[in-house]
């Protein structure tokens, strides 16, 4: 690829950029890891703040919707969403994470610079802009049938929890879930209709003791503590004026006009402040351009959400 | 138009040259009108030919010409006198002449053909006179054909009385929009740079009220734009009265409109809404409800400012430079998720969002969320009217024309023009770069912000784009799928 994001970088076991979570695989941990995209997405990975979402390629619309919502809400809450970029559930989870304005990691079976499946070329490109695509396979290598179970162990190790959205019996997603259990990671499953073939695997997982996941909050409850809505990270320093605007957004002012009314300033001034806050990461917008407060807290923490 | 009257043979009247039913029926109208106007209908074998023979002729506008050709061929009028005169008009059975659409374009075509004069139905005469040339002869009845070229020829009306103007005297004014100062600002930026705009908000938030007021803050139509607008209106049979100045059109097709209705089509080809909106505003309310095909078909018109309708035998090109304003509810029920009253199924809300963010994503520069104005805002005095906003818009457009050339605006800048005309302060460059890394702006999103920043700077008369301009552009930009 000629795209600047297409340049492949690599890291070795023992180097500082190597994800610590993979060391739990012990002897099985990949010696080298290659990646494309935003290198900081993998270097800054925090233990406990990741979720792996996997599921069937032939998912139902129910499964696709749940996966996308999970991806979106968990990414918005500050978790890194890990998946395998396969058609179906994987792709929906990545898409959701991107829509939520978060970071997402795709673990591929072939080389990180080989788009597979090719139908997800656009998704691949989108992932590269904010997140990363990683693989233990050397650059340029095509994926083979045997490379997917191996890839699954990396996904299982990277996620603090692995959520299976839809899976038939047997399936690769269940292999990932089993590997996660083997690593003493949490495993969750989305319940589905008892008549649906693609929910057989997930319903079985629940019977076997996996956490029943009804939505993003169930995942957050397990990872961060009951009732916590997102990861609170400390953001960059905030000027006094901007802090007041952030507070106004937190209290429900979602548009420039509303912020302007709350502050008694002209809306053009509010617009400037909101753009600055968005660049600093304190507010986020949806597709319509409405503002909402992110979980970021200012240093000093007097305006915690 | 030619006619031959053969003596001998059975009396008959045939019309050739691919006439459509309305033209074919012209035979019956012409026969009655001639007889009722005191002329004789020649009882011979008559052939009237509409040239060129392979082009389909439609509509009743040929009646007058057919009658004149018949009169010439049968010697009742002098063929020499008629030969350099263009004629258009529909005949009534009693010999009176009815108005037809498209007179302005016909008069201009007559000028191209070096006609001496054009005879038109009297109600169409003021419109025909707008073309300036050739001489316009208003006719009320068929028998007046005999007066053509004589001293008794009816006189053309005086030239157009109106001055080119953007908004008519009754155009809705921005002062009607209560509250919503930021929406007002977004409209101003959109009008100043020719940027298309998407307004998202619940029903009652004033989306369509605002869109309807956009023409009133756009710069006045130039003389040539005004003629184009008139020509299109005339061809579609919606000619404004001769006294009213042509205003920037505002078209708001319903979302069930077909692709052909939107961009033009059919046989014979008809102008679509995009062409009717030429020079003005095309408003798509409920953007997400328009069919995917219709929205896809908007791409070429939006990008090129003209639309090509291809038919088996020929292709026609119609102008369609318009500003696009789209509006949408935030979700299918209209209340929006953040209102807490939304009762949409998550799946249908998701589909709606996906369609909305995909629709014309790369063609709409500005997206703005709106809320219903509060009771105080509804009662508050209006803050500014269209005239004052329009002054700023005109000034901003002048700066753009100075930079880009006559009639151009920031929304149409090529990438090279964008780079060369966007001198930025250091802080502005840094902020745009931060947008790229922090907000994941794509290349297209980056260019969009740059374009909007340039317009915002133009509105303030600033030569260089500052960080504040970029910040405001970041807020206004359309997000989602680039």
Could you explain the architecture of this structure?
- The complex is a heterodimer of chains A (305) and B (482).
- In chain A, the strands form 2 sheets. Chain A has a 9-stranded mixed β-sheet with strand order 1-2-6-5-4-3-7-8-9, with helices on both faces. Chain A has a two-stranded antiparallel sheet with strand order 10-11.
- The radius of gyration of chain A is 20 Å and the shape is globular.
- The longest helix of chain A is centred in the N-terminal third of the chain and has 16 residues, at 61-76.
- Chain A has helices at 40-43, 61-76, 89-99, 121-130, 147-158, 172-182, 200-207, 216-224, 240-250, 256-263, 267-280; strands at residues 8-12, 32-37, 50-54, 80-83, 104-107, 132-135, 161-164, 186-189, 211-212, 283-285, 291-293.
- Chain A is built from 11 helices and 11 strands.
- Chain B is α/β, with parallel strands linked by helices and 482 residues long.
- Chain B folds into 3 domains: 2-147, Ribosomal Protein S5, domain 2 (2-Layer Sandwich), CATH 3.30.230; 180-386, Rossmann fold, CATH 3.40.50.300; 413-482, Orthogonal Bundle (Helicase, Ruva Protein, domain 3).
- In chain B, the strands form 6 sheets. Chain B has a 5-stranded parallel β-sheet with strand order 10-13-16-9-17. In chain B, strands 1-3-2 form a 3-stranded mixed β-sheet. A 3-stranded parallel β-sheet of chain B has the order 4-7-8.
- In chain B, helix 7 (181-193) packs parallel to helix 16 and helix 18 runs parallel beside helix 20 (467-476).
- Classes of the chains: A alpha/beta (305), B alpha/beta (482).
- At the A-B interface, helix 2, helix 10 and helix 11 of A face helix 7, helix 14, strand 17, helix 18 and helix 20 of B.
List the helices and strands and how they pair.
The complex is a heterodimer of chains A (305) and B (482).
Chain A (H helix, E strand, L loop, with lengths): L7 E5 L19 E6 L2 H4 L6 E5 L6 H16 L3 E4 L5 H11 L4 E4 L13 H10 L1 E4 L11 H12 L2 E4 L7 H11 L3 E4 L10 H8 L3 E2 L3 H9 L15 H11 L5 H8 L3 H14 L2 E3 L5 E3 L12
Parallel strand pairs in A: 3-4, 3-7, 4-5, 5-6, 7-8, 8-9
Antiparallel strand pairs in A: 1-2, 2-6, 10-11
Chain B lengths: L1 E5 L5 E5 L4 H4 L1 H11 L8 E5 L13 H11 L5 H5 L1 E3 L2 E2 L5 E2 L4 H10 L4 E5 L3 H5 L5 E5 L41 H13 L3 E4 L6 H6 L10 H13 L14 E2 L7 H5 E2 L4 E2 L1 H4 L4 E4 L7 H6 L1 H6 L1 E5 L4 E5 L3 E6 L17 H13 L7 E4 L5 H5 L6 H19 L10 H7 L4 H13 L4 H18 L6 H10 L6
Parallel strand pairs in B: 2-3, 4-7, 7-8, 9-16, 9-17, 10-13, 13-16
Antiparallel strand pairs in B: 1-3, 5-6, 11-12, 14-15
Helix pairs in contact in B: 2-3, 7-16, 16-19, 18-20, 19-20
